[in-house]
Every structure is written in structure tokens, then in C-alpha cells.
């Protein structure tokens, strides 16, 4: 009987240590990678004469320090570039036929991680899409 109690106590101790120790693991180690951030500002698909307009994006007050990159295709209704994640940008929509500015506004992009290549704790490349619905 004594032997059975000793065995039961040992089994219980192993079970408790196993459960308590199950939550303890190595902390996540993330690689030192500076992921890129992409900003896309686009005219809504239903914008009247969408393909006859160009989207221009600038830093507020033409401050070059907000981290805007070069537009990948500057001749269309979508402005897309790698950026330094500015909190605010100024957006203009220009009629390509006349050169008139048909819309001008400030936008505050909301960036989100689009991929977690090394796990959710490590972050990854980010993106924000600003869709201009009306003039």
C-alpha cells in the first residue's frame, strides 16, 4: 500500500510540473528585418471618368521629410509607392485633359501588416489603401 501511494504521489507531481511548465517556452526571436510599407491611393472604380484622371500624393505642406517614395506608375488613377508610413498625406486628383485639380484633400492612411513571414509576433510588411469615393 505504501508503495502505491508513493507511485501515485510521484505521478501527480510529474503531471503538475508538466502542466505548469507547458506555458514556459523560449521567447520568439524575430529576425532584424526592416520590412517595407506600401501606400496606395486610388480613385474608386465608380469615379466618373476614372481613367481620365491622375492621382497625386504629397507630404503635408510639401515637407519632403514625411517619407513618400516615387509613384510606380504616375500616369493613372492609382498612386502606389513604398513609403516611410506617413500619418497624413495631401492628395490631389487632376483631370489629364485640362490639368485642372478636380479634388484636393488630406488623407490619414491606416497601415496594417499584410504578411507575417516569421510569425505573428514578428510583424511584417505593411500596407494602407486609401480609396477616394467622391470629388
Characterization of the model:
This protein is α+β, with helices and mostly antiparallel strands. Helix content is 15%, strand content 31%. It has a single domain, classed as Immunoglobulin-like (Sandwich). The protein is elongated, with a radius of gyration of 27 Å.
What's the topology here?
Elements: H1 2-21, E1 37-43, E2 53-58, E3 78-83, E4 89-95, E5 101-107, E6 112-113, E7 126-132
Parallel strand pairs: 1-7
Antiparallel strand pairs: 1-3, 2-4, 4-5, 6-7
Labels describing this entry:
4-stranded mixed β-sheet; single chain; 31% strand; 135 residues; alpha+beta; 1 helix; Immunoglobulin-like; elongated
Q: Could you state the order of secondary-structure elements as H and E?
A: HEEEEEEE
Radius of gyration, Cα only, in angstroms?
A: 27 Å
Q: What gross morphology would you assign?
A: elongated
Spatial order of the strands forming the largest sheet: 3-1-7-6
Quick one: biggest sheet?
A: 4 strands, mixed
Summary, kept brief:
The chain is α+β, with helices and mostly antiparallel strands. The chain has one helix at 2-21, and strands at 37-43, 53-58, 78-83, 89-95, 101-107, 112-113, 126-132.
Amino acid at each position: 500500500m505504501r508503495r502505491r501511494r508513493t507511485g501515485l504521489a510521484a505521478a501527480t507531481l510529474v503531471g503538475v510540473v508538466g502542466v505548469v511548465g507547458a506555458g514556459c517556452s523560449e521567447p520568439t526571436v524575430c529576425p532584424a528585418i526592416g520590412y517595407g510599407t506600401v501606400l496606395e491611393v486610388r480613385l474608386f472604380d465608380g469615379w466618373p471618368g476614372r481613367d481620365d484622371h491622375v492621382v497625386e500624393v504629397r507630404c503635408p505642406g510639401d515637407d519632403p521629410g514625411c517619407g513618400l517614395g516615387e509613384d510606380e506608375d504616375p500616369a493613372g488613377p492609382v498612386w502606389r509607392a513604398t513609403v516611410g508610413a506617413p500619418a497624413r498625406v495631401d492628395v490631389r486628383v487632376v483631370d489629364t485633359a485640362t490639368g485642372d485639380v478636380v479634388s484636393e484633400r488630406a488623407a490619414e492612411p491606416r497601415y496594417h501588416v499584410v504578411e507575417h513571414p516569421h510569425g505573428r509576433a514578428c510583424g511584417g510588411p505593411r500596407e494602407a489603401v486609401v480609396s477616394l469615393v467622391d470629388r
